[in-house]
Amino acid sequence: GAGVSQTPSNKVTEKGKYVELRCDPISGHTALYWYRQSLGQGPEFLIYFQGTGAADDSGLPNDRFFAVRPEGSVSTLKIQRTERGDSAVYLCASSFNPINLNTGELFFGEGSRLTVL
Amino acid sequence: GENVEQHPSTLSVQEGDSAVIKCTYSDSASNYFPWYKQELGKRPQLIIDIRSNVGEKKDQRIAVTLNKTAKHFSLHITETQPEDSAVYFCAATGYSSASKIIFGSGTRLSIRP
């Protein structure tokens, strides 16, 4: 596609439920990032993939959060037993190469707004 | 790990005046410092970046300066226009995890007509 695509754009769920958020990066981009953005805050790093593997998952808040990228393209962020504090916009971004090799520009999706009631 | 502080959180300037946003970072090994602009309801977009081997970079009305000794970098916007109104985020890489970008908390810039 022309840009990074994220679905759903909006998700409302009840506390304790399971949710999946999907990211379809720009074709050919090897790096994929997940960030979480709360109102009035900067993007908070969650996890970074280089190809199929998670190169850095140090930003995942706890073991309720998990992300996969099985074929090195589409990624899914999975949140178990959702809590009200998980409410935020979840941003996905992709880049062509790791920062230390190329421009490092991140191309962001429109985000998935998660609301946990 | 890397930590990025950004100031001010809000900034209001008269149209035509200059705006300056400042950031500091904690990891002395960081080597890449991008700036992103996020308009209301839109996705963040890269506007300019700088690498640690240069001290200043300009692109038309925007410029970024880097002081590696002091571990701070700044965004300068001259001759501000209404379309410059947005939230601006600075960011830095933690060299020990080469491609993880850490963002500052953002500056909401408003341009007064």
Let me know the largest β-sheet of chain A: 7 strands, mixed
H/E element sequence of chain A: EEEEEEEEEEE
Summarize the amount of helix of chain B as a percent range: under 10%
Q: Provide the helix percentage of chain A.
A: under 10%
DSSP strand content of chain B: over 45%
Overall 3D shape of chain A: globular
What is the element layout, followed by pairings?
The complex is a heterodimer of chains A (117) and B (113).
Chain A: E1 5-7, E2 10-13, E3 19-24, E4 31-37, E5 44-50, E6 53-56, E7 65-68, E8 75-79, E9 88-95, E10 107-108, E11 112-116
Parallel strand pairs in A: 2-11
Antiparallel strand pairs in A: 1-3, 3-8, 4-5, 4-9, 5-6, 7-8, 9-10, 9-11
Chain B: E1 4-7, E2 10-14, E3 19-25, E4 32-38, E5 45-51, E6 56-59, E7 62-67, E8 72-77, E9 86-93, E10 101-103, E11 107-112
Parallel strand pairs in B: 2-11
Antiparallel strand pairs in B: 1-3, 3-8, 4-5, 4-9, 6-7, 7-8, 9-10, 9-11
